[in-house]
Specification:
Topoisomerase I, Chain A, domain 4, three-stranded antiparallel sheet, 568 residues, disordered N terminus, alpha+beta
Amino acid sequence: MSSEQQAAGVGDLLSFDLTEQPWLPVLRTDGSTTDLSLRQVFAQAGEIRRLVGDLPTQDFALIRLLLAIIHDAVDGPEDNEQWAELWEDEAPFASVGGYLDTHRERFDLLHPAAPFFQTAGLRTSKDEVFSLNRIVADVPNGEAFFTMRFPGAERITFAEAARWTVHAHGYDTSGIKSGTVGDPRAKAGKAYPQGVGWAGSIGGVLAEGHTLRETLLLNLIAADAGVVRTTGTDRPAWRREPCGPGAASDLAGRPHGIRDLYTWQSRRLCLHFDAQGVYGVVLSYGDPLSVQDRQTQEPMTGWRRSPAQEKKLGRPLVYMPREHDPARAAWRGLAALIADRDQDISAAGEPANALRPGIVHWLAHLTTERFLPKDTLVRLHTYGAVYGTQQSVTEEITEDGVAVALVLLHETDRRLGQCAIDAVADADRAVKALGSLAGDLARAAGSEGDTSRNAALDLGYAVLDHAYRTWLSSLASGDDPQERRAEWQRIARAEIRTTGRQLIAQAGQKAWAGRLVSGPKGEVWLCSDQAALWFAAGLKRALPLAAPAADPALASEADAPEPPKVHA
């Protein structure tokens, strides 16, 4: 037997104690990787760069688990001062060890009566045991998805099983599942769709520091900060009675706070195992949780106002989680991440159309109240899952992030934050000019322009991706917003101009010769030279701060006429 198997138990009574057994994969600050227990992770958090689970979404789910443990162990933090004491403490998680000792029995993955995040004895009427593909998200429903497990996950270690159990509560798919004995919701042996796991319904946003210690503390929101609502009955899953097959009877008014939410039991599951590991699972629905208007409870996502939900529910105001677009880099949606919740107002006196994530509001609060220096660099790390076929399969996992100085979030001086947001708009206009160039070149050669235009848009954003992230991370307190925006426009102009010249050079003989096309003001001879002139003029309009009129080298571009909207 392996050392892990030997540690699993003695005789017939198997055990896998998550507080003592290694199961959390981490990347250390020295570049090495290893698996650690809960106790080790908290004791060594300052030496760990980050978690490195099987999927990015698994990391997000596990971080929320660790945060629930800290919140409960310190019973807070109650206020800014208690948080500041933890931030300055060399061993901020010292109390977690004793806490884990107290609740150790509930952290046993294989406990006979109260297994961690499971329902003991969960069974179907036919006593079926199903493939682990139902919880191992990189082989959803038996189909390969960036996996080396072909044709499926037949057996996994206890450590892997623990990680996927946590992940299932956060990101499990919807669809029809097996009905379980004792669940009144089951009909004819089936459990009907209840939606995806809670974390799968949001666009996850996490504040990431230089070490896991910093990451955990940056996301440890004080109770009195006005970011999330909490009550005196807020507690994590392991401090509640073990779940039965059906939904909990006390769901009204829950979740009571983030300890409750971060450990929400959205599924009922039971692992099947032997001394060598886990080989099967029974999985069904657990506690439902509607997505509407949870902005005072869920801090790790942005929110958007939903007129469709307002009409459907008959409410004057409904907010829904803002999910991440897998085709859109995080920096392109920077406004949704950092813009203050009072900025996006559709009309005077109207509620905001969008709210930034509560965790960003918390970081802004720490900066404004001077608990963290303005130039503290934090990475806003985004996580999400894209579901298909009525949310019954996982189609894509998304992960990205942008590094920002906390001065960009400052609540009383928003100039640099607005500068960063305006720079994204500058990038959008510059890339649009590149797309127009590609379309014009295609039409000049006798082709349809849409395909070329769309390809050029993707290319333009790819070209600006590293440049914008580098420029954004360099913004610091004391910078002049106008000067920094002009700097960005010069950077963007140089990158897009170079790319445009490459497109012109690759356009070919037909585009150089050109052809007659009709436009709103009559016929126009469209060739690569004419397209280049229109592109130069369009780029100048898109990035006016990058091309001062006094620069004689740009005079010919400034005089170029605006292109007509032509069609072949």
